[in-house]
């Protein structure tokens, strides 16, 4: 999917919501556990109930890998289901990968080709040659960690390097890499005041924003400081939507949560943008 | 496996060699491609031919994921084969994982429980709560990136923070985390002179050292600056061993390469250590 197509979907749906699929068998409705592939069935139900309110889905790869081969099969079925039934959805493999060049090339192959995701999250620590193999794929997007939403973000990401924080160096350096137009960045919502500074470095890039809801971030604050002329934000919500209820009404409750977020977003979106 | 058991194996085998399993179907002998699971068959042959010369095997997870479900099955068969036939081998999932706490816990479950690896490589960028879920597993080892062997290592890892490089902050900070006795670190062989400084910070920890051979590092230099009283080094070699030949003699050639490395190591190992 191109960035233009993503922006177009945001206009059509009046939403920049991304639904995170972090499926834990201990947390889903128990009646699903009797089915052959409860993870896929849960995802399918959530997707069917929210696809008109969200522009992106973000399967969290750890939650599939934890179930071994079965989990990997559920992941494959989930991404195929989205691609076949809702081709306008932007898909994110939340995988936080990154390794030396020939290894990153294999991860890129796994997620962009074998699974056919539109994008993948990657970690920056190993530098340029660990990220560029992902950037080489046309119309695929590489979402690099910049400033994350967890407390550990303050261990290294905000260390001062030459008078400014490490995450700013990461952003400035990444902009110089080959095919950097294919980069997006992860910026946690729990640090809304940082968005002003980040937008000075990457004014046009899309930012994937976790941390709204369960982790305490505010949608209006993030939009106030982080939104650009093309919106430039994908706001992720995982647990607040997918675990809105553990009963047989989980689909209805998930939709209600997603609808509430979409309506908040519609209220924020600039009238001129939507024309 | 405990650290003591690993040290004991180094004494018995007079070796601190780790063989990296980065299996690319384009590079393995063509006669294997006719078999049902060429990746597993290749790994099995390499392991059978070198298990008395190596103390560790390191499947590179990207190279399995790139082949989708089939690759994941090959990974499962490979780790099971090692655990069942060579239980004294230390196994490393080279996965470079790391995410917010509940997600890292799922990765830990995937690699320590479902696949039953002894250790996993992780990335430090997200800080303490992204690594501690791995450290909570008893007799499992978490091998964190410190200073890597690729050129991108100089993008961020060596940035100056308060007068010293970022990777030193990473080492010093990680030492303060809960269960940090379960940490090992990745330090690239291409930067042998850095080992002196690193040993001042982590004198007792095991270091996993890629970059000998194909990437240009020198075994004797690394040992000179990086070895401690318990050896404290696992030297990885991937391509130089597993792709020593593409012909039907690949097993013989792989063993010859591994033997040469083991003999170099035996020559370096202190006589008093081996008693």
Automatic annotation (TrEMBL), chains A, B:
Q: Which Pfam families match?
A: OMPdecase
EC number(s) per UniProt? Answer: 4.1.1.23
Among its keywords, does the record have Signal?
Answer: no
Catalysed transformations (reactions):
orotidine 5'-phosphate + H(+) = UMP + CO2
Q: Which GO terms describe its molecular function?
A: orotidine-5'-phosphate decarboxylase activity
Which stretches make up the Orotidine 5'-phosphate decarboxylase domain? 16-254
Q: Which UniProt keywords apply?
A: Decarboxylase, Lyase, Pyrimidine biosynthesis
The pathway where this protein functions is:
Pyrimidine metabolism; UMP biosynthesis via de novo pathway; UMP from orotate: step 2/2
InterPro entries according to UniProt: Aldolase_TIM (IPR013785), OMPdecase_type-2 (IPR011995), OMPdeCOase_dom (IPR001754), RibuloseP-bd_barrel (IPR011060)
Record family assignment: Belongs to the OMP decarboxylase family. Type 2 subfamily.
Task: State what protein this is by name.
Answer: Orotidine 5'-phosphate decarboxylase
Name the species this protein comes from.
Flavobacterium restrictum
């Amino acid at each position: 999917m191109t960035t233009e197509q993503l922006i177009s979907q945001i206009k059509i749906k009046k939403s920049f919501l991304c639904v995170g699929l972090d499926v834990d068998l201990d947390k889903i409705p128990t009646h699903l556990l009797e089915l052959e592939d409860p993870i896929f069935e849960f995802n399918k139900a959530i997707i069917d109930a929210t696809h008109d309110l969200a522009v992106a889905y973000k399967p969290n790869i750890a939650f599939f890998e934890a179930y071994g081969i079965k989990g990997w099969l559920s992941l494959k079925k989930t991404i195929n289901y989205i691609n076949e039934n809702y081709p306008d959805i932007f898909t994110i493999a939340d995988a936080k990968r990154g390794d030396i060049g020939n290894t990153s090339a294999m991860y890129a192959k796994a997620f962009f080709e074998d699974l056919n995701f539109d994008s993948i999250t990657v970690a920056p620590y190993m530098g340029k040659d660990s990220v560029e193999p992902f950037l080489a794929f046309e119309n695929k997007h590489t979402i690099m960690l910049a400033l994350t939403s967890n407390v550990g973000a303050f261990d290294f990401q905000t260390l001062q390097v030459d008078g400014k924080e490490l995450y700013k160096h990461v952003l400035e350096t990444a902009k110089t890499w080959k095919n950097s137009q294919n980069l997006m960045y992860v910026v946690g919502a729990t640090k809304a005041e940082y968005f002003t500074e980040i937008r000075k470095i990457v004014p046009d890039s899309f930012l994937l924003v976790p941390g709204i809801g369960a982790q305490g971030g505010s949608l209006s604050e993030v939009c106030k400081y982080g939104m650009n002329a093309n919106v430039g934000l994908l706001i992720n919500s995982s647990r607040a939507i997918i675990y809105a209820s553990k009963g047989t009404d989980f689909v209805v409750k998930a939709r209600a949560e997603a609808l509430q977020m979409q309506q908040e977003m519609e209220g924020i979106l600039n009238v001129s943008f939507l024309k």
